[in-house]
Amino acid sequence: MERANEEETAQRGAALLAASLRGAVAPVRVEAGETVVRQGDPGRRFYFVESGALDVVVTSGMGLRLPVARLGPGSHFGEMSILAGMPVSADVVACEASVLYAPTAEEFDQLVRRNPDLLEHLAGELAFRLKRTNEQLAAQQQRQATLSKLVSFRPSSPFKRDIPSFGAKMTAALAEASGSDLPLLITGEKGVGKRALALQVHSTSARRDEAVLVVDCRELSPEEARSQLFGDASPDFVSRFADSLGYLQAADRGTLILANVDSLSAEVQADVATFLRTQQESSADDRVDVRLIATADRPGAGSGAEEGQRGPLFEALTRVQVIDLRPLRERRRDIVPLAEHFLERAGQLNGSPPKQLGESAVRELQTYDFRFENVEELRQVINLAAALAEGDVVHSEHLFFGSGTGADALQIDLLRWPRVEQLFLDKRFMVGLKALVAAAFAGIIAACFVAPASALGRFANLMVWGVWWPVLVIASVLLGRVWCAVCPLSSGSEVVQRAAGRGLSAPDRLKRIGPALALAGFVGIIWVEHVTGMIGNPRYTALLLLGLAAIAAAVGWLYQRHAWCRYLCPLGAMGGVLSVASALRLQARKEVCQASCTGHECYKGTEHAQGCPMFNHAMFLTSGQHCKLCFECLRACPTRSPRLVLQLPVRDIWRSNSVGADLAPLAVVVGLMALVLAALPSGSLHAPLNKWWFTAGALAVVAAGVILLRLLRPRDRTESGTTLSWVARLVYAFAPAAAAALFAFHVQSTPWLDEISLRVGMTEVEVFGLSLLRLVQGSAVTVGGLMSLWALWRLCRQRAAGKLAMALVAWTPLALLTAAYLVTALALLGRG
To answer: Quick check: 299 and 324 in contact, CB under 8 A?
Structure first.
């Protein structure tokens, strides 16, 4: 009854207004789309709608244009501005040709003076509107807060027409989608650029001057998703004007992008499908006019049910327009143009000229698979590289992929004890260790060179080949590159670098051929060692060590940081290969880095600590392959994120997401060289036959390593590296067995091991006898073999996706090959 009385009063007031205005002012005609008044302007007229229809549109603080009311014949507006001197509170736009009466403020004042009843009617209208406004204010404020959290306004997409794969087919698809007003579904893997393409479609469509809303459906709560999308409207008729607005009303006349639409429940997806169907069937004036673009991770994701089922929303979208974006690893020609684009954007944000991609960076980018987030992952990699590169060129050492590995239940953080952490934080500890080792090696070199025939010279030589060399091999497998942290070659190179270093960046060509040089250098050291008889000639040992020190010093003088250790050192390369199986390594706390790292001090360094000498970023360490355990990152990091963890051996072979394939062939070279050494004919190498035989074997090993190195590199820019990466991991899995065989050979030079025997039996009858040397060799080979077999098994299980039968089929021949290798090595070593 009350509502009926209000409507009757409003009708009488409208009739009184119409009668008064017709005789006082001339009518004004406005065309469809014409804006009568604008929000924020001073109000100078009173408006009465004689015929037609107009929309009241409010622009929110977020820039949203929200239609809040439809004004038909008999409606009026503008009185608040005239009576209270307030600015216009909303735009009023004609949605069809309309006739208005629009007296000025003076004319309106004269009108109400002549007709006091008009003023009473308008006062009642104002009171009624104020009451409704107060009731809706709280709900609208809550809606605005929700919009600010869940709706994103994005600039034009980063897609560029000059990207090679964005060619004729994709350009045609984009042109068709931009020229249409029909719904669009964009599919593809995570991070492939679906939102960017959706924004590109909007920015090139007829709606480009209207609002575009991006709503991530993953952020919509299941209980409120329907109301957030539709407000209080029914899906089969979503009006522009409702007491509670949803995203569809907010995007009226523009574009609504529903990202990850497959995250919506099946019920809400069905409602969206109903909206699409009814929107296409009719176009009432007060129905929202929205272009809907949806994105999903895979073609079947729109069903909201099990994979393979197609729900009504998916069917509705796929019947109209679908664009499928291929993952970045399948369009590798796009990687470099996109990377250059991101570098350009990074330069614009920093107000500096864009940096260029170096040859080594291009090679790294083109051989990485970007399986985590595709284009978004590439953007993150490039943005970090731009921040890390000090010069104008981004090199491979500035590129970091993945995001490291998180903590594992089977890991022990050795730095959780404060005294241990303080020990490594104190730089004097590492300096003291380096000085001690450097002094010891200087003494060894001096003794071997000055007094090679003396007892001291022979003892020094024995320490090199009988103790240091086998310990280096086995320590690399168990503890990683611990030797590299105190290596005197590295220390000498660093001293030269600080005194007179030129600080050049290592050239890309050096990085490219570095693995081959390190491989050949490793074989060369062993060849020189045995051809010259260094085990029995201390002076040659001194010359070898002095030669390596001179080369390391020269590289340190030329290039920045520890380029010798990272790219060229044969012993460092061997340590890097074997350390993939290590139980000890540095690992940053990923959650700490992601939350608080802004300065990248672990890479760049600080006033009190240098950056990582091996060009590492602690957050991205996923193995110990290129980590020297020097703890410079720990001392530089303000949050003490790096940790020293003890873990299961060989774990990184199947868990790490970025073990480099370039050094994998060295694992095969180590294993083959161990067999060549074990198979040496008995007698002195000074015999011509033995020299030629050993040289031919060494050359064959180098050739095999170079061939494998070539095979493990993608042969063209479009080739996926997934299979090659898995093959490289298989090669790394053989590293413990190869190291065990090499150790078993060199441990023969360790004094006294062959002289100590373990015997079982009576005094007169010996039941069993075994020298300590054979026991050590057998134990090393057994442990190395088990480590390799376990790593191979985990890799096969991983490849077979947990299918036991397939894993066994793949693992069995690999296990037999490993066992045959180790048995052969032991048989050759035990011939004497």
So the answer is: yes
